[in-house]
Design brief:
mainly beta, Immunoglobulin-like, four-stranded antiparallel beta sheet, 35 strands, elongated
């Protein structure tokens, strides 16, 4: 269901023998979002059918479940549909965009350009690039990969894949400050703890995770995990970090107080990225090799239910702040899957083009940005 566009609604009335019942009054109502009907009442035709349209208000958050109820005499039948996101803006950026992070207040975003060694700032109010791209690193052939913004919005940390370092950006001046922070080989993703005092970095080439003290900007711990770690997420309370290792098909759970692995969870083939819900109760993992998503119960650190299918080559995953829905970039099929987390089901597939990579959801659920490798663009999803 797309907002601002009339969607057909059909109600069928049958008699006690299961035959079409003509001339019956049908009344429609909607809950879950503001919606208007072409006609909220009408009578069934010779086939027992009443057809009209429903129009959900523009701006309704993606993933909102709208229930339309048809009433005819003593009979009441509800049906549900989910609001699907669409591309609402395209931001042109030079180079292959890899990862994206949105500021905590939702006013700006940073996007890494992995091949041209830059970071670009986007004004989320206008969906335009602010200033010149920020030169970050000298790594060849690949430079900036992951990006994370501090909880107070003052700094961003950027991994430099080929150089084995992390750079720090002052968001007030959009400039790199301080010396590069050496990590392990081929740093991929970076995440900052909720209190802003530490960050974790996955080192794909050395099978480790580095912990950075953000007060001193030095590595204070190096933790061995599975083969080829890439994705990373920190629990909302900052107590644990979950790391995906695509080379071993596992997720390592790190206790951030002791910097030790306390659980290793087997997921799918080529487990690439991970996201944790805002309430910390579950995590989603993309399994690139099987085109599936695994759900982890964080209380037991076990995979619950069977992995469910998304598009081809799922890469990044993000869960909305309210936990109601998630997005997954499908790198090989050029799509984004929209998932309702209550039922672990894909309810919409949004075509975005060639090789979608990173994604991030804004703080109020209403928009997301998707990076696009080989397309020189970032797409904004919304309603």
């Amino acid at each position: 269901m797309t907002t601002g566009t009339p969607t057909p609604v059909t109600a069928t009335v049958l008699d006690s023998q299961g035959r079409p019942w003509a001339g019956q009054l049908v009344t429609l109502s909607a809950t879950g979002a503001t919606a208007t009907f072409g006609s909220s009442t009408g009578t069934t035709d010779s086939a027992g059918v009443f057809t009209t349209t429903v129009n959900v208000a523009s701006g309704t958050a993606p993933g909102t479940v709208v229930t339309v109820t048809a009433t005819s005499g003593p009979l009441t039948t509800p049906d549900t549909a989910t609001v699907a996101a669409t591309i609402t803006a395209t931001v042109s950026i030079v180079g292959n965009t890899e990862d994206v992070a949105i500021s905590p207040d939702g006013t700006f975003a940073y996007v890494t350009g992995i091949d041209n060694r830059t970071v670009t700032r986007i004004d989320t109010a206008t969906n335009t690039v602010v200033g010149s791209p920020i030169a970050v690193g000298t790594g060849v052939p690949y430079g900036p990969s992951g990006v994370a913004i501090s909880p107070n919005g003052s700094f961003a940390y950027v991994t430099d894949w080929n150089s084995g370092v992390v750079h720090r950006i002052n968001t007030a001046t959009n400039s790199v400050i301080g010396s590069p922070i050496p990590t392990g080989a081929q740093p991929g993703r970076v995440e900052i703890g909720p209190n802003g005092t530490f960050a974790y970095v996955t080192n794909e080439g050395s099978d480790t995770v580095s912990r950075i003290d953000t007060a001193t900007n030095t590595v204070t711990a190096t933790i061995s995990v599975g083969a080829s770690p890439f994705g990373l997420a920190i629990s909302p309370d900052g107590a644990f970090a979950y790391v995906t290792s695509w080379g071993s098909g596992t997720v390592s759970r790190i206790d951030t107080a002791t910097n030790t692995v306390t659980a290793t969870i087997s997921v799918g083939t080529n487990s690439l990225c991970v996201a944790i819900s805002a309430d910390g109760t579950f995590a989603y993992v993309t399994n690139t090799g099987t085109n599936t998503i695994s759900r982890i119960d964080t209380a037991t650190n076990t995979v619950v239910d069977s992995p469910f299918t998304v598009g081809m080559g799922p890469r990044d995953v993000a869960i909305s702040p309210d936990g109601a829905f998630a997005y997954v970039t499908n790198n090989a099929s050029g799509t984004v899957s929209q998932i309702i987390t209550a039922i672990d089901t894909v309810t919409a597939t949004i075509t975005v083009g060639n090789e979608p990579s990173g994604l991030a959801i804004g703080p109020n659920n209403s928009f997301a940005y998707v990076t696009q490798r080989n397309a020189n663009a970032v797409y904004r999803l919304g309603t």
